[in-house]
Amino acid sequence: MRVLFLExxxxxxxxVASLGPAFLAAWLRRHGHEAAFLRVPPTEPIAAIxxxxxxxxxxxxxxxxxxxxxxRARDVxxxxxxxxxxxxxxxxxHATFSPEEVLRHDGVDYLCLGEGEAALLDLVEALQSGRCVxxxxxANIWAKGxxxxxxxxxxxxxxxxPFLARDLMxxxxxxxxxxxxxxxxxxxxxxxxxxxxxxxxxLDTTRYGRRRGQGNVLAELTELREQGPLNYVIFLDDxxxxxxxxxxxxxxxxxxxxxVPFSLNARVETVSQSLLADLAAAxxxxxxxxxxxxxxxxxxxxxxxxxxxxxxxxxxxxxxxxGIMATANYIIGTPGESRAEMAETIALHHELEPVDFxxxxxxxxxxTELFQLCRDNGYLPDDYLTRPANHRESILNLPQxxxxxxxxxxxxxxxxxxxxxxxxxxLGAAAAGGLSVVERDIxxxxxxx
Length: 449
Ligand code: B12
Ligand code: SF4
What we know:
Elements lengths: L1 E7 L10 H12 L3 E7 L5 H11 L3 E5 L2 H17 L4 E4 L1 H5 L1 H5 L6 E3 L4 H12 L12 E3 L31 E4 L2 E2 L12 H7 L8 E2 L2 H14 L4 E4 L8 H14 L4 E5 L6 H10 L1 E9 L3 H8 L5 H13 L3 E8 L6 H14 L3 E6 L7 H8 L26 H22 L2 H7 L3 H12 L1
Parallel strand pairs: 1-2, 1-3, 3-4, 4-5, 7-10, 10-11, 11-12, 12-13, 13-14
Antiparallel strand pairs: 5-6, 8-9
């Protein structure tokens, strides 16, 4: 069978495509099926999408969905249903945690809960042999109108998975994206990534949190180096710096064999000065830390993140001293956060002096603890599923701060961003490129490689 994965872009700017389909395609191909990929720009008319789909002539259309992609997915799949007669399946975080709402829509035939490799293969083989897929015939696959399916065990060990199907990722400039684990052990209440761990923990399955062997990760990198330029590696793991023995061992070999610069995501509780030194020696150039709030109360009581502000100050200093760039990410307008606490975040930002930073207006992701809190307290508007998850404006009706308050703080952050960009990049260059420090670093390396 041939499965076509549609990548529904929500922004015009390029970003690496979703990883889910690249994992699924590799698995399907290993089992003798075909996988194709079509990137769909944000404003591409349905008729044009239908033409492109018809050219590929797939037997099944697959769509991976974050919450931000949901509205576009709804419109595209609904529109396609009127023009082409091909079954569809959706998966990913939004589908997993809002399944009833998603399945209700025209053009969505099947939905995959959680990890998809084995489940999608079973569906493809059932469709191929003409078997009916109704109530709980395939674990993880929810057929429209059917009952919620049971969940199968996550694949164990992760090394059993084939390497990512890179032709579905649209990588550029010799920058390669890789994951060494699935799941995150921390309890952050706003985080959607965390929800898979919770989903699987609540059922009679093995744990979702797993890590690949170092040898398996290094073998994928070796293959990538043989295939083309390997200029920069981005580890997309939620928190790369858990399991220090694993990380140190990996750094030893990576530093010797590759020494290609790389970046990763970390929490301040999971790094030490000596770990940062090992990472830097192996080639780590950039770490993205979730700071989220400058108020210890907001972090502790609302987000379940217990690190102190002093810990953030120390870790940002150690990171700088190790010669690694730090990016800080912040959230604005978490339920329960006061206007003064939002100002504390700006104050902490000025102390941390990260090389780069991101600021996101809080959005309640389905399945998360804070989503539930917003729903229980009436903060969530009834039409929340039709409001864009763009992280630029709040969709909540909060008692202690208004949307206008949050918009004002967002403007303050925007001004800080503009000032930082102008300090870093001469005016002409900033206007021409508008690139972040990291993007410029990556492109410069790609140009000289
Ligand atoms: C890599 C990554 C990106 C990449 C690629 C996106 C992607 N979807 O892979 C880039 C840089 C583009 C990106 C951008 C953004 N991201 Co992002 N990203 C991630 C990250 C760190 C890892 C994803 C990953 O490794 N997946 C690995 C695979 C194995 O997992 P998976 O995607 O869930 O896929 C499996 C199953 O879900 C299922 N499945 C998935 N798709 C499908 C499709 C079908 C047909 C089937 C059958 C099954 C299936 O099978 C897959 C294999 O088992 C996650 C955190 C996380 N742990 O998920 C955040 C995450 C997905 N991102 C998030 C966000 C918010 C964003 C941004 C909005 C950030 C921003 N503020 O700008 C943008 C928006 C992107 C968009 N278009 O919507 C949120 C999404 C929350 C939500 N409920 O929507 C997450 C969960 C982070 C978080 N902690 O909250 N991101
Ligand atoms: S540490 Fe990061 S990925 Fe893990 S639960 Fe918290 S926010 Fe999510």
